[in-house]
Amino acid sequence: MPVGAERIRIYALIAAAFVVIAAASVLLAPQRAGALQRCRNIIMQQNKDSCLSYLASQTRNVSVCGYMSRQSADYCYADVAKLTSNASACTMISNQSETYGCVFGIANSTGSYSTCSYLKGEQREYCIEEVATELGNVTACSSLNSSGAQVCTSAIYLGMAKSGENATYCAQVSNNTDQGSVASILALSGAYAGSSANMTLESALNPVEYLQGNGYGFSARDLCYITVASSARNPAACAMISNTTLEGICNQSTYGPARPNLNQSSALPSTLCSQYAGQNYSSCNDIMAITEAVSTGNASFCASINYSQHRYLCYAAMARDYNSTSYCGYISNSSANQECIQNINYNMTQ
Question: What's the rounded Cα separation, in Å, for the pair 318 and 72?
């Protein structure tokens, strides 16, 4: 066959292939449209919704949901939104609580707190708080208003302190004694099972509920210290509690067999406090010094603390832990010295 004829034959085959492809695309479009129409032509609403729901999930086409009954459409929007990670589909849901659940689910699964912007007002705030605490993302908290950011940040650090039995994180927890603020931090952190406005701790620390109900103000930071102290059987963290009544409960909560192989000094490297600044940095160093003093029995760690009140608390913690008034002798303040001795003498008589 001549070269020219062969070339013409090849061109003809290529042209034919294009015709077939074009014809197929023309035919497929009516098929898709036909599937939608067939679903819509079904008389029984339940069967019609089932057909449309399947079509929407297969095509990932959220507009199909609009042909369904209201309740079924809401489920359809949520399903397509989840399949496509497209939170805009969530906004088509008529029920606000279901809209929230839809947006939050996508934000949490993708790790993107900016997805919460599909919500408005308080729902947006709640969404960011929950995503931030779920993922431990302190940066996300900064997008909230000042009070919300404080609750959000505090909840994250409280959770970290409890899970890691690390009291240095407590310095970043709010010291606000407002009951509503404390309750919000506890509930958001998930640090306490069944947390609610009554701020019940664990069953062993139920006196805290009584104290709060009778006007003894304490902060989420105080609760952070008592949590670490009771969990690790380490009274050093109790010395950082600002509420003296709660400090007493904290001391009681640490009674019991010492935790095996508890080495707080190795758990708190000297570089850890470098992440903090100002007062938080000083508090972190003081906690480390008190922990070292109690765990090693070496009072020189207490002497390294500049803030006198914390230094006295360090000696008192050693006296309490070793049940010896000799450590009280290091306290130069006469009233603090007498209080230390009285507490130890009282413990000895019990």
Answer: 65
Q: What is the pTM of this model?
A: 0.58
Give the contacts of 348 (CB within 8 A, at least 6 positions apart). 323
Token pair 């508890």 is found at: 262
- Within-domain flag for 239: no
Residue type, 8: I
pLDDT in tens, 316-341: 888 877 888 899 999 999 888 888 88
CA-wise closest residue to 311 among 279, 295, 333, 281: 333
10: in domain? no
Q: Is residue 241 part of a domain?
A: no
Task: Retrieve residue 209's tokens.
Answer: 């509920």
Range of the domain at 97: 46-136
Helix ranges (H only) for the chain are 3-40, 45-59, 70-84, 96-110, 121-135, 138-141, 146-164, 179-189, 207-213, 220-232, 244-253, 264-267, 278-296, 300-303, 308-322, 334-349
